[in-house]
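Can anyone check this?
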Amino acid sequence: MTKIFTDIGNWLIQSGALVTLAVFAWKYLKPVMLEKQKHAKTVQEKELLGLVNSLADNAVNSLVSNTAITGHDKFMAATKMVGTTLADKGFDVQRQTVEHAVQAAYEKSDLTPTVDPTAQPQTGVVVHNG
């Protein structure tokens, strides 16, 4: 039985069929592997953006009630908090991405006043009867 396997192995090597099989397998598997790698990278980036947005929401919410600092300083503090947390965990995220996430979190928070688009603007002197 061992002689049969040895003979088949020798034939594969001597005829070049083994090399042909390896080249064919590589040509078939390489695009599949690259596509899997690309998909994994996309999933990782999506998860990382979710983490950045979550950290930004938490940072902004922690600064909402702090009236001792201005809005710009709150923005800078939140950006620093998110960036530091990500760096401490070993994530490399561009500062611009962090700033966009913090800005989006501020727009969702209580710090940004909501404006009623149907309300008419008040001009001049407003008299309240009361």
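Reply from J.R.: I decoded it. The mean pLDDT is 81.
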